[in-house]
Each structure stands twice: as C-alpha cells, then as structure tokens.
Amino acid sequence: MFEFDQYLGFLAFLTILTIGFWLMIFLITFVIPYWIGGSVIERLNEIKEEKKANHSA
Q1: Contact residues for 2 (Cβ-Cβ < 8 A; gap 6+)
Q2: I need a surface site. Which of 1, 38, 40, 55 has the fewest CB within 10 A?
Q3: 3: region left, alpha or beta (phi > 0 left; psi from -120 to 50 alpha)
Q4: Half-sphere exposure of 39 (CA within 13 A, CB side)
C-alpha cells in the first residue's frame, strides 16, 4: 500500500494541515476579535478626547 517514505510524507502533510487548521481557529476566535475590540475602544477614546478639547477651547 504505502512505502515508508510515502508514509512519512503523508504524516508530514497531515501535521502541516492540522497545524494550519488550529492556527486559523485560534486566529478567528481570539486574536482578531481582540484586535478589532482594541481598535474600537481606542477610536472611541480619541473621539471623546476630541470632544473634550473642542468644548474647552
């Protein structure tokens, strides 16, 4: 069925595929929402500071 080098290549392919799958799951569920949430909070703080600066001027 498989020779030994084909078996190693198949295992390497499965390993790379699995690492890529879990990396995408990690990015989609943790990193991207954290990044978007931080950007929104930072922008809201900038808007608040601009309003404060305009009121005191």
Answers
A1: 10
A2: 1
A3: beta
A4: 6
- The pTM (predicted TM-score) of the whole model is 0.64
Q: Which two tokens stand for residue 26?
A: 């990690």
Sort 36 into a burial class: Cβ within 10 Å, 0-12 / 13-18 / 19+.
exposed
Note the Cα 38 to chain centre separation in Å.
13
Q: What are the backbone angles phi and psi of residue 3, rounded to the nearest 5°?
A: -90, 170
Ramachandran quadrant class, 20 (left: phi over 0; alpha: psi -120 to 50; beta: rest)? alpha
